[in-house]
Fold this sequence. Notes:
The protein is an all-beta fold.
Amino acid sequence: MATTADFRNGLCLEFNNDLFTIVQFQHVKPGKGPAFVRTKMKSLTTGKVIENTFNAGVKINTARVERRPHQFLFKDDLGYNFMHTDTFEQISIKEDLIENYDLLKEGQNVEIVIHADTETPLSCELPSFVEMEITYTEPGLRGDTSSSSSLKQATVETGATINVPLFINIGDRIKVDTRDRSYSERLK
Length: 188
């Protein structure tokens, strides 16, 4: 058990029969009335972000979650298969628990968030940036920068589609930001 004084970003708690992690919180002490805590919480099972207000000093149930390093092995009928990098145990995770699953390639290291009490996987987090090779894109025309965005669609080695600048060609290696699926830079 914890109280609102223990709130911090990343704290996992049980709320409304679900597991939530605190994204943002603010202690408020108005001139009149009791203090309270405004929070933004993200569901670990559905990914929804909700806002909630707690009275100051309210007791809450915290949940114990662990981040474990895994390596992506392959995809089959059961889902995506990962191997723990220390114990070599394998687990299978459904596609809906992996955000940006189409940016996942074999041999890539990820972190899997696991509920420590029940040993159930909650989510799979890719690294912030991944390196990809362009497998298909339209050729960029020289001097064609009249549009404000100057981006074109490109398909990477995993089959995902990313918007890239006009100078990117087939065979180029790029760095992709997995948080917003955007082009970051071209690699040499």
